[in-house]
Amino acid sequence: MPVEEFVAGWISGAAGLILGHPLDTVKVRLQTQNVYRGIVDCVIKTYQRESVLGFFKGMSFPICSVAVVNSVLFGTYSNSLLLLSSTSHQDRKAQPPNYGHIFVAGSIAGFVQAYCLAPFDLIKVRLQNQTEPRARPGVAPSHYRGPLHCARTILREEGPRGLFRGAWALVLRDTPSLGLYFLTYEGLSWWLTSDGSATMLVAGGFAGIISWVVATPLDVVKARMQMDGLKQQEYRGLLDCMVSSARQEGPGVFFRGLTLNSARAFPVNAVTFFSYEHLLRFLS
Ligand SMILES: C[N+](C)(C)CCCC[C@H](N)C(=O)O
User: What pLDDT was estimated at residue 118?
Assistant: First the structure.
């Protein structure tokens, strides 16, 4: 099992995460809080109350977890494709694998990484939704004082299963959309013929956009399920969350954050695939 795929996946994922976290924070707040009039209103209110640091809330944990999540994602994808089509990463330019194999390998990777991602993503969303200014005398402290305190508090208040709140929505979000993610990347890379840096950036960027467009409806449901355990339990399950969200806010609720997901997806995934490919060449 080539180890370099995992290492390249780790470093490339961290690069993409840092670039995109501020937009991700604004997106999560728009998806789960009905207090903002839109993207600009959310950005202004966040900056005014929490300074620029407010946009980076909840990032410290994903920086650690992206090592696990992205290396599992890229490592599982490449090794699943090797098993399905007997083509290693180096062979793929000369012998493009079957698109069905690419989609299946990407979906397998999406399913596996979702379970690794679930607790980390839950903590990220809970921290991103804390809108109190930084702790100072006279200001009510936030419910969670950091990622580890958040994990301990969830374990104490919601039990071990609490750390996997929203996991099913995450699995349903990521399994097909990551199949599409890798299918778009491999297909565009093959169609653009050259295997230079520009191809990596363009194919990676569009892979990110297309996968996030498909993933956004379940991304909204996932974030709401993850926030559900914090105060009172509002939803009786994933389907109840979807039905009551649509009933109360209209079907448009499932596309909340789509603009931000798409705007963030191109640079983040262009950088992710660019660094992944170059790291692989360097490591192998
Ligand atoms: C599967 N889904 C569309 C949710 C994500 C696919 C791209 C993942 C990438 N690390 C990013 O943060 O954009």
Answer: 93
> Which residue, by CA, sits nearest to atom 1 of ligand 1?
174
Q: Which letter, b or e, does each residue of 55-81 get, where b requires 16 or more Cβ atoms within 10 Å of its Cβ?
A: bebbbebbeebbbbbbbbbbbbbbbbb
Atom from ligand 1 closest to the CA of residue 20:
12
Give me ligand 1 centre to Cα 138, in Å: 39
33-52: b (≥16 Cβ within 10 Å) or e? eeebeebeebbebbeeebee
The two structure tokens encoding residue 90: 């180096």
Q: Is 5 in the pocket of ligand 1 (CB under 6 A)?
A: no
Token pair listed for 32? 């789960």
Place of tokens 């900056």: 47
Torsion angle defined by CA atoms of residues 97, 99, 102 and 104, in that order, rounded to the nearest 10 degrees: -130
Contact present, 177 and 212 (Cβ < 8 Å): yes
Question: Can you point out the beta strands (E) in the chain?
Answer: none
CB-CB contact of 25 with 284 (8 Å): no
* 37-62 pLDDT per residue, tens: 999 999 999 999 999 999 998 888 78
Q: Which ligand 1 atom lies nearest to the CA of residue 219?
A: 4
**Looking at this predicted complex, what is its ipTM?**
0.97
113, 211, 222, best to mutate for ligand 1 pocket (most atoms within 8 Å of CB): 211
Distance of alpha carbon 274 from alpha carbon 284, whole angstroms: 16
Query: What's the pTM value of the predicted model, to 2 decimals?
Result: 0.86
**Residue 184 beta carbon below 6 angstroms from any ligand 1 atom:** no
Index of the ligand 1 atom closest to the CA of residue 110: 1
> For residue 184, how far is its CA from the centre of ligand 1 (angstroms)?
13
